[in-house]
Design goal:
This protein is an alpha/beta fold. It has eight helices and eight strands, in the order H-E-H-E-H-H-E-H-E-H-E-E-H-E-H-E. Strands 1, 2, 3, 6, 7 and 8 form a six-stranded parallel sheet that branches. It has a two-stranded parallel ribbon with strand order 4-5. The chain is globular and about 45 Å long.
Length: about 240
């Protein structure tokens, strides 16, 4: 028995099969994208990019302070925050805390939250578990001996988190955090207008985390950042306001 194959029909069948295969591949691709963990979830040893409270109404402002940042700008930020009646989270390194005990105590006395930023400004993602643990533990002891208060949040320098970093932080009882809104003020240290325009374009939402550093530009524009948050019907606050 001979089977006669119509070339036109065969061509249509092949094209149809290719189309079906492409649709299936596309569906799997988008399904994979859609099933990625949301920013709020701390899964697979990842830090939080946003807070976890349901409708907290807050946006957390965080200021990371290392030995290399000028302390006079910390003072300027404190003054600006006092005028706005806003309390935020300062994540400090143990090294900075050792050299700025009075200023650290002033941050605490003015009602701000203090987080752990590691002991030294290293690339924590490339450290072993033991090295991460040592850096976090050393900083925790230094900071808490000064402020006589437990620290709850850990922010790795440069946001450099590896699995060992999050594991070590958890071992020390910390919630590991990053951010979803970056001012990049370290790059535009004398350009507050650039920072303001950058923040205006960001998708700031309930439970967002804003990253800042003590720079001259930050001192000049932190009130603008606060007002941008308020204009969205949200309140600027600490990490503990969104976790």
């Amino acid at each position: 028995m001979m089977i006669v194959i119509n070339k036109k029909k065969l061509k249509k069948v092949i094209i149809g099969l290719i189309a079906v295969i492409l649709i299936v591949i596309s569906g799997l691709y988008f399904m994979k994208r859609e099933t990625k963990p949301t920013l709020n979830l701390d899964v697979a040893n990842q830090p939080y990019y946003q807070g976890t409270k349901v409708k907290s109404g807050y946006v957390a402002l965080t200021c990371n302070v290392d030995l290399g940042w000028e302390s006079e700008y910390v003072e300027g930020i404190l003054e600006a925050l006092k005028k706005e009646d806003v309390k935020i989270t300062f994540n400090v390194t143990g090294r900075w805390a050792e050299n700025n005990e009075e200023l650290l105590l002033k941050i605490k006395e003015e009602g701000h939250e203090i987080g752990n930023h590691g002991h030294k400004h290293l690339d924590y993602a490339n450290l072993s578990y033991e090295e991460n643990l040592e850096q976090i533990k050393t900083s925790k002891k230094i900071i808490e001996d000064i402020i006589q208060e437990e620290t709850k949040f850990f922010q790795a320098p440069s946001g450099s988190f590896g699995d060992n970093t999050v594991k070590a932080a958890k071992e020390m009882g910390y919630t590991s955090i990053k951010w979803d809104i970056d001012t990049i003020d370290w790059k535009n240290r004398e350009e507050p207008d650039v920072i303001i325009e950058r923040i205006k374009k960001k998708d700031i939402v309930d439970n967002s985390i804003v990253l800042m550093h003590p720079t001259n530009a930050t001192v000049q524009c932190i009130d603008d950042i606060i007002n941008i948050i308020r204009d969205k019907g949200l309140k600027p606050g600490k990490l503990s306001d969104i976790f």
